[in-house]
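Final paragraph of the annual report: two paired records, presented back to back.
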Amino acid sequence: MTKDITQLLEATNRGVSPYHTVSYGMELLRKEGFEELDITKVWAIDYGKKYMVNVYGTTLVAFKVNKGFDYGQGFRISVAHTDWPCLRIKPNPEVSTGAYAKLNVEVYGGPILNTWLDRPLSVAGRVSLKGENIFSPETRLVDFKRPILTIPNVAIHMNRQVNQGVELNPQIDMLPIVGLLEDGLNKDSFFLDALANELQVNKQDILDFDLYIYNPEESCMVGINNEFISAPRLDNITSCVACLNGIIHGNREEGIDVIALFDNEECGSQTKQGADSVVLSNILEKLVTSMNRSRSQFMDMVMNSFMISVDVAHAIHPNHNEKCDIKNQITMNDGVAIKMEPNQRYATDSSAVAVVEGICKKYDIPYKKFSNRSDIRGGGTLSSITCSTLPMKTVDIGVPMLAMHSSRELMGSKDQERLNALLVGFFTEQ
């Protein structure tokens, strides 16, 4: 098993919520000498130094001011997202049906709901606790790290049409079982009691929570020759890992290198920590002005910059090849997909594509161009959204995969190494 695969398996196992993905990324960056900056404080930026900014816990921005940086040079930016389609726990979550204790949940993003049934499930996220200052509550990350939930299917004897396709109602069919009330669970507070116990706090001190239901099954290799990686949350931790590797191992001497791992891509990005906000633009402008350059110079730098948006692509399905374009297809382990779409759901133009092709050819990285079928609308990415506030040349890339938005997804085992190599090359070439 290569180090690229080992790292990806570790990242998917540890990235059980956007909070935990950001925490994992900061851990990697801290080991490589990246200094954390407070977004609310004045910055003192030095040439040759490396920095990172935690944005509201679920978005991470990191940058390097290279030693040879001078006015006129732009940014190199790669972006990905930390969130994934799942179920989220509602306020007042305790629900009881007879002797069963259940949780009231809601759907986040666009998951394939039936892939969440009959699996062991766990809970992770952030909890806000009563603090000394009302405007500064204490926050803690939590991860139960063990299966505490499951969502059982209705038996085929009671649902004879199940194999013909049955629509699942999120409010009825997706409520997970926690336990039995007769086993000592308090009907009105069994989950809050469990959460307080996990954190070792008084439940009266819990003010609010932001909790995700996740698939805790370990990531693994699959296939006769370990051709594939089967894991939860590959969309989009595979891209987060590549961005982190790129900025850590890239070694160009000029310009400023940046990665942004955004939250809320799966629900449209229109949040304070999402790509459809000014948060990245504000951070970059603050960086530039902290180095005694003007806003006008910042705008000049933006126009002289280049962005790679990294998100997964659709591999051709072995049982449904009719779902793909008749020519522009890609198979797992074919290499990196360059994603093309004329209506700019993928923000790709020919000059930007040429740059990525040049990197791939120089570093001998396999790649293919990908387009969706003309009668099937593909999903959007961060690229066009980010470029609406930071106009620059941009290209969409990613690894091809199957079972996208399932609770467990599948990608080629060779493709993470190729994606990592492309991002390192991106942050190395002058």
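The closing record of the year follows.
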Amino acid sequence: MRRTDREVKEFHEMVAIMEKCDVCRIALNDNGFPYILPLNFGMKVMDDEKVELYFHGATEGTKYSLMNADNRASFEMDCGHELVTEKESGNCAMEYESVIGRGYMEMVKEEEKYEALCILMEHYHQGDFPFNRAVMPQTKVFKLVVESMTGKIRTKKKIKG
């Protein structure tokens, strides 16, 4: 990372940023081109400083054929956007917090689907939300097992005018 003064290195700080985000973008390989999908997500944090990101979708689509051909993926999520302008100096910048990383996509087994959907719902509802289980047969659930990630923050205190 070029701007090491903005780098977030601590795992728990990256997780805190991820908890504030409401969309995760994953990039899959589509014949040498990135195929980017903005997705709702849930996250499972393990004790050994590992994280899994959970997603859901329809039962068929391009993303599944791409995952089957190459299960490597990258992800990006960001939040805390605020435009900061300094009229005296004529400078402007955007505040943000972001996390990027990469790992491997896996389909969630049928017997693990309910728990994975609960993880997704928890991210948005902060608690147990009794979702309609009748939609489960029409829903595929998949996850990104994160191998590496890094975070970045730009705030007012770090903007030099």
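The chain is about 20% helix and 45% strand. This concludes the annual technical report; the extension proposal builds directly on these records.
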